[in-house]
Design a protein that fits this description.
With about 350 residues, the protein is an alpha+beta fold. The chain is built from 11 helices and 9 strands. The mean pLDDT is about 95. The structure holds 3,4-dihydroxyphenylalanine (DAH).
């Protein structure tokens, strides 16, 4: 047995020196210390050793096993270290190499205009409200004084999902949702997408954006509306900008007006942008109709309000000198990279 142990010890010393990868190391461990390995085989013979010799043999076997274990462990560390060094060598970083310039994105021009508008109104104390794009007929039409069969519905070619559900054609529905949930004072804007069954051309798109505004409080007047819109127009189109209100009809406001701003291109002289008019239409507005207020549980004898709806594409076209609305939706990077 002594010879056997000695031989195992010597064999191990020779073989471990030759190991240079983890698989071979594991195979060696199994061969020497595994259940069917050499050490186990020797230990099985311990029964035949005389009782006097047994403790000596036992001690020697333990020493050999200890040596083998230590050999395996130090080899494992050696291999791991070598592996790490190889990895570090392969990973060297050349700090003198030119870097890769990361692609820097930018906000879509429509989003830029929305944020500019939001900032103007936030500066006047407005909060931003939100509403669903898939909307009930009730909020989009009925609650805004456009009952079923009302001829003014025809001016907004609508995508219907069912009889009662549609893609909102205007952000004005958010007025109703806000008034149903909040008591005055109310001072909100709501930018968002709206949908109409229009064919795409230079000035129309089946999907476009509006920014709705609503103010309801005690003693709100048309003068407040005009003052607000003046501040907005000067902030967006320049401090020299003038506005004018033209009487118009919207079913949910009374009185109603369309608002023109003096042409930002020619200052009112008449040019290609304003088609010689000196003025460009930018939004619709009016005093919230008393029936709309009371439908939302707000007493029109106590409260009054104004509302407005701004076309965002139109404003962005003015701001950036874009002449074809389709460019906002084509996602052509050559166009978008200019903003
Ligand atoms: N919703 C109208 C449209 O899409 C625009 C509008 C007009 C909104 C008057 C208003 C308003 O809030 O008071 O044509």
């Amino acid at each position: 047995m002594k010879e056997q142990l000695k031989k195992i010890s010597e064999d191990f010393a020779v073989q471990i020196a030759e190991v240079n990868d983890l698989t071979a190391l594991d195979a060696l461990r199994v061969a020497f210390l595994g259940k069917k390995g050499m050490m186990t085989a020797v230990m099985k013979g311990m029964g035949q050793v005389s009782p006097e010799e047994r403790p000596v043999m036992g001690q020697m076997a333990n020493e050999v096993r200890g040596k083998i274990e230590a050999g395996l462990t130090s080899k494992l560390e050696e291999l791991k270290k070598a592996e790490m060094e190889a990895k570090l060598k392969a990973d060297t970083l050349d700090v003198t190499m030119p870097g890769k310039v990361p692609v820097k994105g930018s906000f879509h021009p429509l989003q830029q205009v929305i944020e500019e508008m939001e900032n103007v109104f936030i500066g006047m104390g407005y909060e931003i409200a939100d509403g669903p794009e898939v909307e009930y007929d009730y909020y989009n039409f009925e609650a805004l004084n456009l009952p079923e069969g009302h001829p003014a519905r025809d001016t907004q070619d609508t995508f219907y999902i069912s009889d009662k559900v549609l893609l909102r054609t205007q952000t004005s529905c958010v007025q109703i949702r806000v008034m149903e949930n909040k008591k005055p004072p109310i001072k909100i804007i709501c930018p968002g997408k709206v949908y109409r069954s229009d064919n795409m051309d230079a000035t129309h798109s089946p999907i476009f954006h509006q920014l709705e505004g609503l103010v309801v409080d005690k003693g709100v007047t048309m003068g407040d509306l005009k003052g607000t819109l003046e501040v907005y127009a000067k902030a967006m189109f320049g401090p020299e900008t003038k506005i004018r209100l033209r009487p118009h009809h919207f079913p949910f406001t009374e009185p109603s007006a369309e608002v023109d701003v003096s042409c930002w291109n020619c200052g009112g002289e008449g040019c290609r942008v304003c088609k010689g008019e000196g003025w460009v239409e930018v939004l619709g507005c009016g005093m919230v109709h008393p029936d709309v207020l009371s439908r939302c549980g707000i007493d029109p004898k106590e409260y009054s309000g104004f509302a407005f709806g701004i076309g965002i594409e139109r404003t962005a076209m003015a701001r950036f000198g874009v002449t074809d609305l389709r460019q906002f939706f084509e996602n052509d990077k050559r166009f978008l990279d200019q903003f």
